[in-house]
Structures are given as C-alpha cells and as structure tokens.
Amino acid sequence: MSSSLSPLAEPWPDDIAAILARLPGTDGYVLSLFRTFAQSKRFLQKGVANLLDRESPLPLRVREIVILRVTAHFGCAYEWGVHAAIFARAAGFTEAQLAATVTGDAEAALWPPQEARLIVAVDGFCRGGALDEGTRTAFEADWTLAQQLEILALCGAYHTVSCVANIARLPHEDFVGEDIRAMAPG
User: Fold this and answer.
1) How far apart are the first and last CA of the chain?
2) Are 84 and 98 in contact, with CB atoms under 8 Å apart?
3) Tell me: the pLDDT tens digits for 70-120?
4) What is the secondary structure of the chain as a DSSP string?
5) Mind listing the pLDDT tens digit for each residue in 35-77?
6) Which residues, at least 6 apart from 45, have a Cβ–Cβ distance to it below 8 Å?
7) Integer Cα distance of 131 and 90 in angstroms
8) Which end of the chain is more exposed for a tag (fewer CB within 10 A), N or C?
9) pTM (predicted TM-score)
C-alpha cells in the first residue's frame, strides 16, 4: 500500500464509485482532485464544503475572484487552471484580470473598487487569517454577513484544495489549454 497522495485508480470500490458518480464530471470522467479525495471515504464524503452551488450569496464572478486568488496564493496551478478554464469566461474576466489573479495585482485600472478591495482582503486571509483595520472596515462595508462568511469559507476550502492538489502533484487536466497553463501560478 502506497502512502503517496495521488488519484485513486480504477476500478473503484462500489461505495467510492457511488460517491464519485454524484460529483461534477463529464461523460463519466472524474477530476483528478476528486479521485485524490477518494483515498479517504470520509474525506470524499465530508471533504471541503461544496460552495459552488446556485444558493451561494455571491455572484459567480466574486466567487471566482476568491478561488483564483487563493489557489494562486498557494501556488496551486492545478486548481487555478481548472477554474480559469471552466469559469473565467462566464465570470467575464479579461485576460489581464485573469493574469492579475495570479500576481495579486489589485490595481484600480484592472478592477472595479469593490473587487480590488476583495483581492486585498483575500490576500490578508491567505497570509495570516486576519485583516488590518482599514481592510476589515472595507470588507465589512462591501459584503453582507452571509457573503463575508461565504468568502471566508471559500478561502478555507480552497486552501485545503490547494494543499491536497499540491501534495499530490496533480498535473493540469487535459481540458486546460496551453494559454491557461502558461498563466497558471507555479
């Protein structure tokens, strides 16, 4: 038995296969990340909260700013690439904005003020789990309590995802194009 964290190979036990079948995928393909979670049935079932549902108090664009910045902050090219490939167009990111999620550039010319402040706040959460007084005041003014909690939950969930993907050394998924791979953190 290997103790190296990596995607679980097929054939999967019936109980794991049943859980994996309920996860997002295309034509039976299961993301490498989910197959890595499957190394532990408990983690696969409980894992990180799935905050990508329609009931989120955050618009898609805001959610993706948070996810892209967290995964970039932790150098997770795998998950950053998945989200950049799947959601960047729907979120309306320009190429410059997508690249800025890697660098943390919150320059006013790139982002509306609220989004620029969000990037600064996410960086604060990633660096030390706290915010200076000015950033905290802006964060509280910009977001409802439900949105604040959702942003914090996304930061924690995608920190965990980044750790798993980085430790497992997951390569980019095949659907992540060369243009996205070239921009990814690393």
Assistant:
1) 30
2) yes
3) 999 999 999 999 999 999 999 999 999 999 999 999 887 899 999 999 999
4) ---S--PPPSSPPHHHHHHHHTS-EETTEE-HHHHHHTTSHHHHHHSS----STT-SS-HHHHHHHHHHHHHHTT-HHHHHHHHHHHHHHHT--HHHHHHHHHT---TTTS-HHHHHHHHHHHHHHHHS---HHHHHHHHHHS-HHHHHHHHHHHHHHHHHHHHHHHHTPPPPTTS-HHHHHHS--
5) 999 998 888 887 766 777 788 899 999 999 999 999 999 999 9
6) 19
7) 30
8) N
9) 0.91
- The single-letter code of the amino acid at 96 is A
CB count, 10 Å around CB of 17? 13
Phi first, then psi, for residue 51 (nearest 5°) are -100, 15
